[in-house]
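Q: What structure does this chain adopt?
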Amino acid sequence: MSGFEEKEYKVFDLFEKQWALVTAGNMERFNSCTVAWGSLGTIFSRPGHSGPTATVYLHPSRYTKEIMTESECFTVSFLPEQYRKAYGVMGSRSGRDHDKAAEAGLTPVAMGKAVTYEEAELVFLCRKIYQHQFTKSDLAKEVCDYYIAHPEVYPPDENGVWQPHWVFMGDILEVRDKRQG
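A:
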């Protein structure tokens, strides 16, 4: 992990343009989903940890969210461009009833107490330090309106009511960087 803070990551491009796979669980039971919302930063500096964190956001309808709430660790993995279609598979299929990693042509591998993919070129292994669902009353009206207007993207719960995303923050424990340059 030493020195990862000095590297350039272009976080706005990584999440919004390249996308990422968030994976929760262990090799016996895990699931991943594609995300375009996330950040790298610092929070909760304390003895033994200088504060580097990764933050990701998962919709409550995602199977990955279910496993994430139970997990101690998670990974945020970025794939090279030739795996662009894999993001589509991982973001459009449910791990409840599909082996979407196999369908996407990805090879799961252990990383610490979590799972990533052999094909990933950049991976952040994180220990979860915070999780919480956004509250509707604290979201700006235009954000609420956006959720309500897009039920095909943000499915409502079993009562037909829209639900905001969950936020997950993790201490960055290890970084694997196979990028060139």
